[in-house]
Amino acid sequence: MSEEAYRYSNGTITVHWRPERCTHSTNCWRGLPRVFQPRDRPWVKIDGAESERIAEQVGRCPSGALQVTWNADAEK
């Protein structure tokens, strides 16, 4: 069975969240609370920070539940 992924995009990047992988380390929301707000729905506020900063924080996800892809027509 494939994992379900939620996607949040701002046009430049897309954050993918796979809840089955999440270990609830709290790295995401403690590091960038303007973007990651676990009590809200949707919980990822993709416009809460610059794309580079979001990608940097997602890179700290220890489980790989959060991942980033840069959209093809966007510049890094």
What key attributes describe this structure?
globular, single chain, 17% helix, 3 strands, Alpha-Beta Plaits, three-stranded antiparallel β-sheet, 76 residues
> What general form does the structure show?
globular
User: Any idea how many domains?
Assistant: 1
Strand elements, count: 3
**Taking Cα atoms only, what radius of gyration do you get, to the nearest Å?**
12 Å
What percentage of the residues does DSSP assign to strands (E)? Answer: 15-25%
Model description:
The chain is α+β, with helices and mostly antiparallel strands. It has a single domain, classed as 2-Layer Sandwich (Alpha-Beta Plaits). The chain is built from 2 helices and 3 strands, in the order ββααβ. The chain has helices at 27-31, 51-58; strands at residues 6-9, 13-17, 66-70. The chain has a 3-stranded antiparallel β-sheet with strand order 1-2-3, covered by helices on one side. β1 and β2 (13-17) form a beta hairpin. The radius of gyration is 12 Å and the shape is globular. The chain starts with 5 loop residues before the first strand and ends in a 6-residue tail after the last strand. The mean pLDDT is 93.
